[in-house]
Amino acid sequence: MEKVDLLVSNNVDVKASLEIWGDMDSYNENLLEFKNSLKEKLNNLKYFKDEKDCANYAILAHSMKSESKYLGFTNEAEVFLAHELKGKENDLDYITNHYQELEQTVNKMINLLDKYFSDDTKKVILIADDSNIILNFLEKNINNEFSILKAKTGSEAIDYIKNNNLYAIILDLNMPSLNGFDVLEFLKEENLLNKIPVVIITGDDTEETIKKAFSYGVLDVLNKPFSEDNIKRILTSINNFYED
Question: Is the pLDDT of residue 125 over 60?
């Protein structure tokens, strides 16, 4: 798990952090807790931004700045510091205009830490769906031989695709911040559709939608709702993709 070179090569100051935490075990424990909190914190920041609640926005940005700094993410801490200060100044225009930069910063941290804490012996499947119920159901019913990444937007899915060696993608079509077809377009542009099997999950079973999905060369289309047996079937299809 201690892939220190991965962190150092991404400008994480592990050496300075160890002066605070003392040893790698303590550092890793706090780093993992930080990683697991990032998505919720990002969602809360967005909520405060949308509600024009600059005071609470500044408080949370301050917390993220401090935690990032203590864990060696000094460049990222500067981004959070800027948002903290602008929140204290009630500068909603700055917060709104620069929020995408903050969001990208957080997602890059998540992607890096997912790699750091990943089990390299497991094949990685990306599940992209904006429903927690679907994400959790799929994760629960996919074999333990796989490591699962979960994205709730199309843009998050693309970030994971860019930064991970994926065994397969299970992709919803209807998602915010780029939909499933946008993700398919990205895969097409990067010539990845013939290298990574993609299974579409959708509640839209119209002939037009199904036909459009298959035009990208996806492996299968699974209509919602689906069962455990459906999941076993698509996993078999994914494994067969690599045997053909």
Answer: yes
Q: Reduce the DSSP state of residue 202 to 3 states and report it.
A: strand
Q: How far is CA 146 from the centre of its chain?
A: 17
Domain ranges of the chain: 4-116, 123-243
CA distances from 165 to 66, 79, 140, 148, 157 (A): 31, 28, 22, 12, 13
Tell me which residue has tokens 């225009």: 93
Exposure letters 171-197 (e unless 16+ CB within 10 A, then b)? bbbbbeebbbbbbbebbeeeeebeebb
**Helix locations, the chain, DSSP H:** 4-9, 14-21, 24-50, 54-70, 74-88, 92-116, 132-141, 154-163, 180-189, 207-214, 228-243
Residues 47-93: tens digit of each pLDDT: 999 999 999 999 999 999 999 999 999 999 999 999 999 999 999 99
- pTM listed for this prediction: 0.61
Q: Which residues contact 218 (CB under 8 A, 6 or more apart)?
A: 184, 193, 198, 199, 200
Strand partners, 127: 150, 170
Residues 75, 12: Cα–Cα separation, whole Å: 8
Q: Which residue type is seen at 154?
A: G
Distance CA 58, CA 111 (A): 24
> Which sign, positive or negative, has the C-alpha torsion 34, 131, 171, 159?
negative
Q: Which amino acid is at 28?
A: N
CATH topology of domain 123-243: Rossmann fold (3.40.50)
* CB neighbour list of residue 15: distance below 8 Å, 6 or more residues apart: none
